[in-house]
Amino acid sequence: MALVTLKQIAEKLGISITTVSKALKEYPDVSKKTRKLVRETASMLNYKPNSFAVNLRTKESKIIGLIIPVIVHHFFSSVIKGIVAQAEKKGYLVIILQSNESYELEKKQIDLLLSKRVDGILISLANETADFKHLNQVISQETPLVMFDKIAKIVKCSKVIIDDRKAAYKATQHLIDIGCKRIAHFRGPLLPQNSIDRFLGYKKALIDNNLEYDPSLVYICECGEMSFEEGKKNASQLLKDHKDIDGIFINTDLVAIGAMTELIKQGVKIPEDISVVGFSNWFMASIISPSLTTINQPGLEMGKNSFKLLYKEIKERKKKKTINYKELVLETELVIRDSTKN
Amino acid sequence: MALVTLKQIAEKLGISITTVSKALKEYPDVSKKTRKLVRETASMLNYKPNSFAVNLRTKESKIIGLIIPVIVHHFFSSVIKGIVAQAEKKGYLVIILQSNESYELEKKQIDLLLSKRVDGILISLANETADFKHLNQVISQETPLVMFDKIAKIVKCSKVIIDDRKAAYKATQHLIDIGCKRIAHFRGPLLPQNSIDRFLGYKKALIDNNLEYDPSLVYICECGEMSFEEGKKNASQLLKDHKDIDGIFINTDLVAIGAMTELIKQGVKIPEDISVVGFSNWFMASIISPSLTTINQPGLEMGKNSFKLLYKEIKERKKKKTINYKELVLETELVIRDSTKN
DNA sequence: TTCTAAATCGAAAACGTTTTCGATTTAACG
DNA sequence: CGTTAAATCGAAAACGTTTTCGATTTAGAA
């Protein structure tokens, strides 16, 4: 029952551990005959190399860490899937941690992963995170690091993102194109870069089209959680504050769906009275009614590419090459549905 | 930059490696004075024990493996969240793998996890899986194993499930209670136990209420994927086959939502003409219109409890106790919404 | 046959930790 | 001061692998 070791194979064949090890790795300095013999008895005894020993000797674990703000989330679970699939192809396993949008947890988890000596770390930042010492620590320990989606521009590492500003601009421009004149924006929390960028894209589209930018039309998510309830709350407030709104660009599909629910409940017709555009293209957006116009955010692709960049850095570091960080910007597209038909 | 080892601390203080190690673990046979000294210099030098060496020595990795059929899935991502959170509390990390409902992949992934020498494995079976040698291999290697949701009854290990039969019975009974006489069932694929059990619950409810059980009203998911499209396809076929249907119990919310979409498109009124009950209580079910009556399946709880059972077995094995497997059945509840109002 | 080169093997160190057990020092007491 | 017990320490083995480098064997050529 106890697991087989090189030593046992060696004893069984009356040869040295060294030779067994080399035979299994097809070293040219062990004869074809013994190589074959060793291979056969190894598989007969169902030998599996002891990862712990291999790790210690080779100083690598073939495991990477992934820190993500939330797991139960259409976009992020797609990212996870992309990362796990791509990693498996290259022989890497993925440890997943959820930061719960908390900076403190994120810090602890980075520490945990470093102490486990993972071969690399993938991270999408918590909304709270405004200080980056923990990330710089990763870099200074020469552990490969790649950030995706919710990134910090200042941190020197590879990144995979979308152009949030451009996408938000596209979304807002679409509202303008179909005739909206007074467009509100439900934005995300203050800190995260993508929340800021989406807001800036919205603002720029207004200005470029000679529409007034009115700060009172921008609703910030104060609770930090982009929920269905948040959308209902904001929509309700918006109807009280402004009677003349004819379009809303909303930071996240889930919030947009909450907003639409509240608007409809209060008798607003979508898209006749108010057009709504979301962001992310959750599956849900396609099946509610009215179906939601939104920006497609390629989660799977983002996951795959993030791992690829990390893998590249792992390889480069092993070869002691100088590594140059890449910033990959993935394409987004506007998916037009019933919430903005004119 | 190179990482600090016990040896370096020992040399710096002019004491032995042994003492340093023991001091950091608060052994009583090293004086309080040296203990303090060691602790201080260790934290000063930012010492982190080398996991690889610790693993090799202690023969445990503090990592568990999780194999799941799909990641992008409301129920399963909730389970993941539950497991990861609970594991973290006990100092364990979680490696996640997606079997993609494939038996071959599942086998490979079990092998991978065993060769990584994880301290335990959590698994929800692929739909395809009908042979359990790979699982019995886990057990015979004395690696703790817990199955959840999609389980195999024959395999001797702890399990966390819901009573699918009872839940399906409840769902069907509800349809009967509101007056349905001809109730169809969209079931899952042939193999998985929960697909079978939900079907049996449906059938038993009919019989107990003196309603005819008509096999032609049961639609099997042949493609093996419980998708939105599957629901549309089945609903369309159902309308062709049977004109007198007044209720449908559907294996999964996603399929139910697809079915409702198709029904509405074809002019059927829900719930006036046909009442629909889903299964799982995805978030989506609460926000579509009409909102979907469904069975709440506690994903988070299932995840937490699965880890707890695994943890229990890990502890028991370490103490060489005899382990007795548990089968935990979690409660479900019927959530009544607009798709079945009478 | 003898010498040289190539082919084949194995001893040993190393990775960094944990833990056993024996050695040494200190304290306590008669 | 001598004896004993308690307190404190460290040498060494062990976990299982990888890899260097030297040793031995074999084959080939002269």
UniProtKB/TrEMBL annotation, chains A, B:
Source taxon at top rank: Bacteria
The cross-references to SUPFAM superfamilies, in alphabetical order and at most eight, read: lambda repressor-like DNA-binding domains, Periplasmic binding protein-like I
Domain (HTH lacI-type): give its ranges: 4-58
Q: Which GO terms describe its molecular function?
A: DNA-binding transcription factor activity; transcription cis-regulatory region binding
- Keyword Transcription appears in the UniProt entry: yes
Family matches, as CDD domains: HTH_LacI, PBP1_LacI_sugar_binding-like
* Keyword line: DNA-binding, Transcription, Transcription regulation
Q: What is this protein called?
A: LacI family transcriptional regulator
Q: Which Pfam families match?
A: LacI, Peripla_BP_1
**Stored InterPro entries:** HTH_LacI, Lambda_DNA-bd_dom_sf, Peripla_BP/Lac1_sug-bd_dom, Peripla_BP_I
